[in-house]
Amino acid sequence: QVQLVESGGGLVQTGGSLSLSCEPSRNIYSFDHMGWYRQAPGKQREVVATLTPSGLPVYADAVKGRFTISRNNAKNTLHLHMNTLKPEDTAVYYCDAYFRVNYWGQGTQVTVSS
In the chain, what percentage of residues exceed pLDDT 70? Predict the structure, then answer.
């Protein structure tokens, strides 16, 4: 069973920055792709950013230019660096990894105060 452990959420003011980390229980290269999703109260889970199998980032329009997804191969971790945060970025953020099936982390809360 694959586990994804997220960390780095918290409370930040509008315009601030936060970084999220995701550490999988198996080699990061073993996944076909990985990414970050988020779910705000009363809304469906939506994609934030993903890395293609070749390592290219793909971003949702709402976060382009503000968020950066990256992978640290040496530490076997996936990261999401979030800048210029807005109240509408408030959500539970989930790490996702796919190898035959989707694996999800437990989620980490990001709250942006206005």
Answer: 100
